[in-house]
Specification:
Blueprint (H helix, E strand, L loop, with lengths): L4 E2 L6 H16 L10 E6 L12 E6 L3 E5 L2 E5 L9 H15 L5 E6 L5 H6 L5 E6 L2 H13 L5 E5 L2 H15 L7 E6 L8 H9 L3 E6 L4 H12 L8
Parallel strand pairs: 1-2, 6-7, 6-9, 7-8, 9-10
Antiparallel strand pairs: 2-3, 4-5
Organism: Megaselia scalaris
EC number: 2.1.1.35
Protein name: tRNA (uracil(54)-C(5))-methyltransferase
Amino acid sequence: MIVPGMYINNLNTEELNEFIDSLTKFYTDEEGKLIGIDSLYYQNLGKRESGELFNPVKHISGKTHLTDTIHGLSFRISPLAFFQVNTAGAEVLYQNIIDLCDPKPNSTVFDICCGTGTIGLCFAKHCKSVIGVEIVPDAIEDAKYNASQNNILNTKFYAGNADDYIQSVVKEVVYSSLKKEDLDLIAVLDPPRSGMHHKSISAVRGALELKKVIYIACNPKAAERNWLDLCKPESKNYK
């Protein structure tokens, strides 16, 4: 899949169509064909419309989604969704996370910044339930689809900001449990390169029912900042 980013706001309809035609021809009939692209989109990098969280993408040719396999599970991937492209490395990473968390039959795993649901769905057979949260709506649709396609029935996925959902989904599980002492709540945080927003960190700190928190880092500096904020004493900013 390739998604060229373009500033198209100054193009009229005819100019845009001509450009899309030339782009399609390059990747399907000309030199670009050698790359073997099987899915082609373009993304408008111009000013977003009111209410848009991300610059929109438009499908041009080929497949609408990619698919990949991790831990024997099949995953559909949309162009705006995050997915670990090094699947061999991802399998090792996810297994280490599962081993570290040591989930039990009564465990609930909160997959924060869940993308297409890969981590949570890999956990699903090891725990009671999985709840995923992700800001990219298309990724959540992928996660729901992936759960269904893999016949995984103990998951829920929500589209929205992590800081808006973390404490509410934890409370949802706590309030629905008949025996609070049997709860085993685990949070897996897999934020983007910029790290977790301070509001999300505050929400994790405030979810006192969590027994384990796993943080997956792809940016050491952002991770260091988040780790310090997670562990520092109470203050005006963090309770």
